[in-house]
Amino acid sequence: MRRKPVAVIDSNLFVSGLFGQNTTTAQLQELWIRQKIYLGTSIEIMKEVNRVLQYPRIKKHLTGNDDLIRRFFRLVFRKALVAEDHFETDRVVDDPTDNIFLACALGTRS
Length: 110
Known about the structure:
By secondary structure, this protein is mainly alpha-helical. The chain has one domain. It contains six helices and three strands; from the N terminus they run βααβαααβα. It has a three-stranded parallel sheet, sandwiched between helices. α1 crosses α2 (23-33) and α1 packs across α3. The longest helix has 14 residues, at 66-79. The chain starts with 5 loop residues before the first strand and ends with a helix. 19% of the residues are buried.
């Protein structure tokens, strides 16, 4: 049996998905919801997503949506493949903060 692909999504895609503004994100979310792909994430990625959600320009759009945010995080932690942050890498030199996504991909591969 062939394993489903694993998508490791950047923080910006996670956040834009909350606003429904990105067709790529909407397609990935739909594939994940329909169980055509796995969503790969990690504690570090979720911390980064939470940090991005605190940016004033983002937070102003989320005022009054605390329940949406809680449900989002609950869904991710219940349904995603959460890597245990065992891998570290420094291969992404242009933006070192992106190394967490590569490390997550390594941690969720079969």
